[in-house]
Request: fold
Amino acid sequence: MRINIRVTWAAGLGMNSTADIIADVFAELGYHVNTDIEYQSIIKGWINYFDIFVSDSSKYISKYVDVIVALDAANLEFSLPFLKDNAIIIINSKHLLKLEKKEISLEKYQILPLEIDAKYDNTYLISLLAKLFSLDEAIIESKIRKIFARKWQQVVDENIEVFKKIFSEYEITVDNPFWALKRLWEARKTIYGNKALTFWAIAWELEYYSAYPMTPASSILTEVIKEGSVPYLQAEDEISVSMSALGASFTWKRSMVGTSGGWFALMVESISFAQQAEIPLVMVLAQRAWPSTGTPTFFEQGDLNMALTPSFWEFEHIVIAPSSLENAYYTWGQALNLAQKYQTVVIVLIDKQFADGKATLESELIIPEVERGKLELNPDKEFKRYELTDDGISPYTLPGTPDGDFIATSYEHDEYGATTEDSAMKVVMTQKRMKKLNNFFGREWIQWYEVFNGEAQKIIITTSYTIYTAKEFVKNNPEFGLIIIHFLKPLDERLLAEIKDKQEVIFVEWNYGGQLENYISKEFGLKYIDGLTIRNLRKYDLYPFYYEDFETLKN
Reply:
């Protein structure tokens, strides 16, 4: 069983809360839920929609809609090309008149109209949707109470009254293809990506967060503020944000900065400072559609090249790309742990679909183990902050530790941190910094990538939230396999063994130039492997990869 429900309305009028109720109800009944929200870059008005994918078995997303809850005429008109034949439209009757005046035909769809003279359009239409699916009344009522709890009790009571009236009196007149959706399993938890990032980073002992808001990273700061346990700063500019995080990291606090590409570009000097002074820093780079300001509220994965080489000078750092929500849980912990263990910059590369997408959790999350690296609490009097060690990682002390004083500078320095322009010291310090990540994969027990149906001769390679749909495609088309890369830098050389004997490798990514394909092909010399065909599936049309996009790979 699979249903795609779309809620569409102008921004600022309650579309998100309406969709949240619907998603949470199905999750409460034990169904798998995945969502996709699309909104234009305006605070109020325009075209916006929220797709809710409900299934008894999987979480892939599809382009076409079974049921639409349309809260105005303009948004319904926009969505008509996405509706399946015989799709059900739930709408306030007055909006139908606007379409009739424009001579827009709705003959191939089924209409469930409501005469709504009062306010609370969304509650009326949610109630009708619940009636269509014969959903549990008690669950719907509890979700409505939760959404409106912050308002006056009178508002809560009026919305409950609307729900009960529609649920008891409205007669479903369409050819209803949906049976009564009873409880499938025990209730599943739902969470959206940036909220998950926030709560799970805190679970891994995040101790400081700074941000200069930029879509789609902005809601991380919102969630940090709402959670209330982590010190945070929204400074006057991007440089202040990143430098404040370096200050917190200097005191060995687990620090994180969240931003998107335009603001990230202004933080590059602090990244080089962090690498020279060997100060750990986690940066969340939330990708969106560029170039320049671009289309700022839509999808793209065009920042990989910048994440791989984010600043001037040569240095070794880590780039991680979480995929599922469950994988993301461990990603935040890995990012915070690895930043401190290797005293380096860790970039967590996400995208708008991950940041805004709400979905059900499918497995229990294990309590994290925090690792803080070479923190020296009892240094001797000859403490060398930048000691030349075999593994390239030097001891660190907390400010104020007796005998643990040192200088953290952006200049080249000796083992104590004192500025130097000595040629021999420059050589050994450079070599020390550049060997931190040597044998990285042998030293860490981490799932660098995942392989599904690895015996297939056609292998899809992708990252991020696309994996839900990619996995469904591979399940239904066993001639294809799938590799999901979690660590983009360093790149695990064992990945080559998964590719070199295949007939085809297919890179799936959201950008024009094929940044993922170019990077991996160059690293592994894929074009020189006899008998290997390299293909790609790329999008840059603002929208995510749907199941229908993957179907084109069979052509």
